[in-house]
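My main concern about presentation is that the manuscript never shows what a single data entry looks like. In essence, backbone conformation is discretised, so a fold becomes a row of integers matching the chain in length. An entry of this sort, consisting of the sequence and the corresponding backbone structure tokens, reads as follows:
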Amino acid sequence: MNLLLASIAFEELGLAHMINAEAEKVQGALGMLPGSNVPAARSFSEVLEANESANKTLKTILKTQMLLQFKLEDVIDIINQKIQVFENTATATGTFEGQTVSDSDSAFYHINVA
């Protein structure tokens, strides 16, 4: 559970950095970013272009945050419901024309421990 919570936290941290970068992009286009070497937009259309780009990126970030919210809710449900998660691994081995090939795959399932 701790790894799931940490993964959510790190993904949120990454999204926060992306939001900050988009804010700096718009500030740079407006010439309001202190200490920046990037020249301000030369026309209103360039400002709109920077804004539209930031808007598209922020929409994608929002969608990702919604998925992370669902993931967090699932983790909280697992913690609250005392669900045990088990791993089941299946391995298949076969021989074809004298060559043996083996592969395995894991699946996870859970049960309520009420």
Remarks:
- The two ends are 18 Å apart (CA to CA).
- The mean pLDDT is 86.
- Strands lie at 83-96, 99-112.
- The helical segments are 2-29, 44-81.
